[in-house]
Amino acid sequence: MRRPYEELDVWQRAHRLNLDIASLTRGFPRHERFELVSQLRRAARSVPSNLVEGHDQFGPRTFLRHVRIALGSLAEVDYLLLNARDEGYLELERWEELSDRVWQLRGKMIRLAKNLEVKSGR
Q1: CATH number assigned to the domain comprising residue 34
Q2: Tell me: the pLDDT tens digits for 17-76?
Q3: Most exposed of 40, 52, 109, 120 (fewest Cβ within 10 Å)?
Q4: Long-range pairs for 13-20 at CB < 8 Å and ≥24 separation?
Q5: Which long-range contacts (CB under 8 A, 24 or more apart) does 69-76 make?
Q6: Cα(55)–Cα(62) distance, rounded to whole angstroms?
């Protein structure tokens, strides 16, 4: 059975990004396990999680609040990937691909937020 949030393009993209970051960070240095790896995984997991939580609430106003929280987490993911690149844990080409995906998702989430603002009367 498909859940209603699984129909959302933004959720599908966020979920895939989360899974890819979990896989990617398995190759990071062991000494980063409780720092960068943990923080990056939590931020990446927070994006689709907030979309699910907001989507399953009642009304566009609550969903909008969760989309905004997810956008904050996505910004954190963007920075942490940049940090991983600059620390030498992530090759430039891989960083560029992930960064592009983050920014595409960001644009889609901003459009979703604007639609929800209209629906909620904000």
Answers
A1: 1.20.1440.60
A2: 999 999 999 999 999 999 999 999 999 999 999 999 999 777 899 999 999 999 999 999
A3: 120
A4: 13/101, 13/104, 13/105, 13/108, 14/47, 14/48, 14/51, 14/70, 14/74, 14/105, 15/48, 17/44, 17/47, 17/77, 17/98, 17/101, 17/102, 17/105, 18/44, 18/45, 18/47, 18/48, 20/98
A5: 70/14, 70/46, 70/109, 71/106, 71/109, 71/110, 71/113, 73/43, 73/44, 73/46, 73/47, 74/14, 74/43, 74/47, 74/102, 74/105, 74/106, 74/109, 75/106, 76/39, 76/43, 76/46
A6: 8
Global pTM value: 0.94
Range of the domain at 36: 4-120
